[in-house]
Amino acid sequence: YNNADGNYEVTLMTKATVYCTGLVLWQPPAVYKSSCSIDVEFFPYDVQTCVLKLGGWTYDGFKVDLRHMDEKVGSNIVDVGVDLSEFYMSVEWDILEVPAVRNEKIYPCCDEPYLDITFNITMRRKTLFYTV
């Protein structure tokens, strides 16, 4: 919902594809900066999970049906929610898993659902980075 950087200009000039079925496909490039709390109790042998929640405040779920492109019918969970094929390996962290979950929430004020996709990014610190 909130980008820690506050800079959204990379998405402004991206075109959307509109199909005759009414489907609109918009694939803007994006760079998001975020932060998360970490628990260093077991440092440098720690595993951390950071949550990244993407959704909209402007339109409800009846207007924008937010779905992960790999979502299977009847399931709101995608086991591998992020394409890591062009991810640069970190010298400090290994990414263990990044599942994506689609959530629907109805607030007391409104009859419409509000949707988000939440990514749980689980990382393990590479101990050799600190123990050599």
List keywords for this structure.
mainly beta, 5-stranded antiparallel sheet, single chain, transmembrane signaling receptor activity, Acetylcholine Binding Protein, Chain: A, 3% helix, membrane, 32% strand, 132 residues
Give a summary of the structure in a few sentences.
The protein has 132 residues and is mainly beta. Helix content is 3%, strand content 32%. The protein has one domain: Distorted Sandwich (Acetylcholine Binding Protein, Chain: A).
What's the CATH superfamily, by name? Neurotransmitter-gated ion-channel ligand-binding domain
Mean pLDDT, to the nearest integer, reads 87
Helix/strand class: mainly beta
Main beta sheet strand tally, sense and closure: 5 strands, antiparallel
Could you tell me the CATH topology label: Acetylcholine Binding Protein, Chain: A
| Assigned CATH architecture | Distorted Sandwich
Oligomer: single chain
Whole-Å distance between the termini? 40 Å
> pLDDT below 50 for ≥5 consecutive residues: which ranges?
none
Q: Compute the CA-based radius of gyration.
A: 18 Å
Domains, number: 1
Overall geometry: globular
Helix content: under 10%
Task: Please state roughly what percent of the residues sit in beta strands, choosing from under 5%, 5-15%, 15-25%, 25-35%, 35-45% or over 45%.
Answer: 25-35%
